[in-house]
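User: For my dataset I need records formatted as: sequence, then C-alpha cells, nothing else. Please produce one.
Assistant:
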Amino acid sequence: MSFLSLTLLYADPGAGALIWQLALAAFVGGLFYFRKVRDWVRIKFGGSPDSVTTTETTTEENETKR
C-alpha cells in the first residue's frame, strides 16, 4: 500500500457526527422546501394551503378584536 492510500483510510472520530448532522440538516431543510413548493402548487391551481389560511384567519381575528 502506498502512503496516499493509507491516509485516505483514516476517519476522524468526529466525522460520523458531522455526517449525521449534515444528513439531518438536509432532511429538515428539505421538509421546509417541499412544504413551500406544495403551498405554491396549491395556490397556483386555485387551492389554499393550510399555513396561508391559518395566517389569514389569525390576522382577520386580530383586526376584528381592535
